[in-house]
Amino acid sequence: MHPFNYHKPSTLAEAVALHQGAEDPAYLSGGHTLLPTMTQRLAAPSDLIDLEGLTELIGIAVDNGTLSIGAFTRHAEVAASTEVQSALPALAELAEGIGDAQVRNRGTIGGSLANSDPAADYPAAVLALNAVIHTDRRQIPADGYFRGLFETALEADEVITRVDFAIPSRAAYEKFPNPASRYATVGVMVADFNGTVRVGVTGAGPCACRADAFEAALSARFDPAALDDAELPAIDFNSDLHASAEYRVHLVRVMAQRATARLASL
Amino acid sequence: MSTETGIGAAVKRREDLRFITGRGNYTDDLNVPGQTCGVFLRSPYARAKIGAIDATDALQVEGALAVFTGRDTATDGLGDLPCGWLVKSKDGSDMAAAPHPPLAVSQVNYVGEPYGLVVAESLAAAREAAELVAADFEELTPVVATAEAAEASPIHEGLKDNLAYDWELGDEAATDSALATAAHVTRLDLTNNRLIPNAMEPRAALATFDPASGNYELRTTSQNPHLERLVLSAFVRIAPEHKLRVVAPDVGGGFGSKIFVYAEETVVTWAAAKVGRPIKWTAERSEAFLADAHGRDHVTHAELGLDGAGRFTALKARTTANLGAYLSTFGSAVPTYLYGTLLAGQYKTPNIHVQTHGVYTNTAPVDAYRGAGRPEATFVVERIVEAAARETGRDPVELRRLNMIEPDDFPYETPVALVYDTGNYQASLDKALHLADYAGFKQRRAASETRGKRRGIGFSCYIEACGLAPSQLAIQLGAGVGLYESGEVRVNPTGSVTVFTGSHSHGQGHETTFAQVVSDKLGVPFDDVEVVHGDTGRVEFGLGTYGSRSLAVGGSALISASEKIIAKGTRIAAHMMQTEPTNVAFEEGAFISGNQRLTLQEVAFASYVPADYPPDLEPGLSEKAFYDPENFTYPAGAHIAEVEVDEATGVVQLVNFVAVDDFGHIINPMIVDGQVHGGLAQGAGQALLEHGIYDANGQLTTGSYMDYCMPRADDVPDFVVDTTVTPCTHNPLGVKGCGEAGAIGSPAAIINAVTDALGTEDIAMPATPEQVWRKLSGL
Fold this sequence. Notes:
Strand content of chain A: 15-25%
Structural class of chain B: alpha+beta
Number of helices of chain B: 20
Radius of gyration of chain B: 27 Å
Oligomer: heterodimer
Helix content of chain A: 25-40%
Number of domains of chain B: 3
Largest sheet of chain A: 5 strands, antiparallel
Shape of chain B: globular
CATH class of the largest domain in chain B: Alpha Beta
Number of helices of chain A: 10
Largest interface: A-B, 21 and 23 residues
Strand content of chain B: 15-25%
CATH architecture of the largest domain in chain A: 2-Layer Sandwich
Number of strands of chain A: 14
Helix content of chain B: 25-40%
Distance between the termini of chain B: 64 Å
Order of helices and strands of chain A: EHEHEEEHHHHHHEEEEEEEEEHH
CATH topology of the largest domain in chain B: Aldehyde Oxidoreductase, domain 4
Radius of gyration of chain A: 18 Å
Strand order of the largest sheet of chain B: 3-5-1-12-9-10-11
CATH superfamily of the largest domain in chain B: Aldehyde oxidase/xanthine dehydrogenase, molybdopterin binding domain
Strand order of the largest sheet of chain A: 4-5-10-6-7
Shape of chain A: globular
C-alpha cells in the first residue's frame, strides 16, 4: 500500500470539501473493493476520505410505499432489518447473499452502487425496484444511473446519501453465483408492481440492465413459460473462465424464470 | 494402558488449544531484533531473456538496503536447486535435468519465477523499492500446453527437446498382445487437471546469520526441515550442516507443497549473511498461487482389455506429465514411481504397461500434492473400469468384485513392481455399499427426477502405497535420500518423557498421536509425554512428513526406541530387584518380577542417580532408533459418490459420499476421520471446482480466489466415513497411513457419478456447471 492521508469527516459538506481540496482523493465506504486494490498497489489515492463518521448516511426507513436505505448501511444490516424483511423481503434476501459474513459486515449499499461492479447484486435490485439514488447534490433515477463497466452517473466528488426503493407487490431475486468468488455470474430480480413488471439483470453485461422483453412478457402473463421465447437484453454479454457469453444468455433466462416461478407459486 | 488416551482412543488434539486461541507460533509470528523485510522480484513473463537490471532508483528508497539478482547468487557460487530423484528413461539414459538456479540468471521460465530479492527496513520500503527495479526482458515464445510440449521447441538452452524423460514400467509386448486378443477393449482419454495447493498459511522464511559464530538459522514453513538443511548445505552450499539450523515451527498446512526446497527460503538464508541482518519473507497469497509447486496435470490415453467373462486381461497407459519449468525436489518421481506402480489398483490385471513422458513447460514446477501420483493412477484405473462396465453392460460393482484381489491372494505381486502385503477389498466395498444404500439408489434417482434433477452414483475402489520404502530399493531406483525415519525417546529423571521425531506435523496432530503411541507403549500418562519435532537443532535427523508416512515410519521408529528403553530399563530393574533380566516383565509402565514391582519412573530416576546400578551399564534412559520399513504400506478402500445435477443450470451437487477405508490399526479415530474429511474435500475440489489454468501466453488466469475455486463447506455433504481393518504385516503398529486416501479415491468416484447422471462417457475435471450444461445441451 502506498502512503496516503486519512480523513474522517463528520459532515457530508466536510467530506465533499476534503475531496475537492485533495490531489487524488477517494471516498472510503466499506472498502471491500478499494482497500484490496490499494494493498495490491493498483490504486494509490493521495487522500482517503472515510465516510464512516457520517451518521446521516446510516439508517433504514419505510414510508409511503418507499423503502429508504442510507448509503452507509451495511449489507448485514439490510439483511437483518425487520423493516426490509417485511416491506421488501427480496431485498433482504439479496443482501444476505452478498459475499460472505465478513463482506456483509463491512460492505455498504452506497459503496456497492458507487463502484458498480458488473457482478454486484444490488444493481439488479436498483433497476427492478425503480430506485432513486439520492446524492449530496441531486436525485438520480435508476434508469439513468448505470453507464458502463464500473461507470455511473456520479461525478467524481459526488456522494450517494441514500437509495429509495419502490416497494412492489411482489419481487424475487435469483442469483447464479460464480463458484469461486460467489459474485453473481448472473443475478435477476423480478419485481411486480400491480401487473407492471420490472426485471433487473446483473452479472450478464458490463453493467446492470433491464430486460425489456422479459418485462413485457411477464406484464402480459406472469408465468415462467412466458419467458421461454422472450428476447434477451441487447447487451454485450460477459465471457470469462466460469461462464461464456452463451452460457450467461442461458442463465439469464433460467434465473428470470426461477424468480418468476417462486412468485407465481406463492 | 488407559483406554482414554492410549492407542485407539479419540483423544482431543492437544495442539488445538493454541491454534484456535491464536497462540500458535507460525513463522510470520516470529520476530527477531534487527529484522529486515524481503520482497522477491518475479517474472511477469512466461519465458524471456533477462537483460540489464538497474536497481539505482530502488536503492534510493528510504530504508532500502540491498537488491540481489541471479547474477549475485551465481557469482557467489550458490548451487542450483536439485531434483531429489533421478529417473531414467526406458533407454537407460538419465533424465534431462534443466539447471534450476535459486534466482533466474539469464532467462525466466514461468510467470512468478524469482529473479531478484529486495531487502529493506520495512515491508512497505521493500515493496516500493521492488517496483523501482528496472529490468529489461526480451520475450520468447512460451510452451504451455501439456499435450503439445514434447513436440514444441525446447524451452531450456542446452536441452534437445522438452522431454525430461521417457519412462516405462511393465511388459509392453505382453500388454499389447493381451489387448490385441481381448474380447473387449475400453479406451479412454483422460486429463488430470492442474491443482494449486492452498495451505492456510502461505510459505514464509525468517533467516538469521550470526557473524560471531558463523551460524545460520532458518525458520521456515517446511514439512521436512532436515531435508531443507541437507539441500542448503550439500547442494546449494550456503553453509555446512553444523553451521545451519533449520526450524519449522507451527506450520499451517502443507499438502505436499512445503516438502520442497524452494528458491525463496534458500535465497533469504544466503542474503541474511550478505546484509548482515535477519531477513523475513512471507508470501502473499498471489505469490503462493504463482510460485508454490502445483499438482497433477497429466494427459493420459488408457486402454483396458477384458475377456468374455469380464476379467481384465491388460491395462495400458500413455501419460504425458507436465513437470513445469524445472524439476522440483521430487517432481520427477511423482508421475513415475508414485504413479505407474499403482496402476494395478485392487485388481488382478495380469498385464500392465505404463509409459510416462515428463515434459517441461513454461509453467510453475509441478510436484507432490496430497496423494502425489496415486490420485492420478486411481483416476485412470477407476474411470476406465467404470467405463468398461458401462460399455459391456455390467454392474460396475460386480465388475470390480469379479476382478478384485482376494483376501487369500496376499501377499500379492502386481505386474508393476509392488507387493501388496495385506488387504480385504471386498470387505470395504461391502460396507460402503451398505452405508450408501446402493439398493435404494434407483428410488432416490426417481425422486430426484421429479425435481428436475438427474442423479448419478459412482464408485472408486482405490489402492495407495504409503511410507515409501525401503531405502535401499528406492535409492536403486533413483531416490537421492533414504526413506527411513528417526525417533528418540528420552525418559527424564522424574519419569516424564520427551519424544523427538523426524516426522513433521503441519496439521496432522502428531503431538497428540505420537504421545498416545509412546504413552501406550511405555505405560506413562499421556500428559507426561511431550513430542518435539521440526527443529534440526533438537532432533537428530529426519525425513519429514509426506506420503502418509509419519505414523507407519516415524511412529515405528518411536516403537523401536521405546523397546530399547524397556530393554535397558529391564536390566536396571533386574539389578535393583536382584534378579536376572529374563525374570523381569514390563507391564503397564512397571517392571515386575515375582511380587516385586518398579515403575518406569523409579527406574528412570535410578538411571540418572545411579546409586544401585548395573556396573556395566551407562547411566541415563534415552534411546534413539532409525526405522527403515521393508515395504510400502497399502491403504485401500471403497468410495461411493452420489450427485444431483440441475438440468437447467448444470450445477452438480455432491449429495452423498461414503468412504470406507482400511488404514490398518488406528491410533486416534477422530484424527483419522478429520484426515479423511479433508482429503475428500480436496478430492471434491479437484473433481468439481479447482483448476489451475494458464492462458496461451503462460499467464496464470486463476491466480486468486476470485477465479481459483476452493471447496467450501456448502460444496460438500456430511461425509459418511468408516473403516475396515487388515493390519499392516510389517510394521510394529500394524498401521498404514491415512493422510491422502480421501484425495486419492474420491475424484474418480465423483466423476463416475457425474457421468452416470449425465449418461456420457466422460467429462473433464473439474465438472463445472457450464461444462455439464454443455453436455446436457449437446453443445
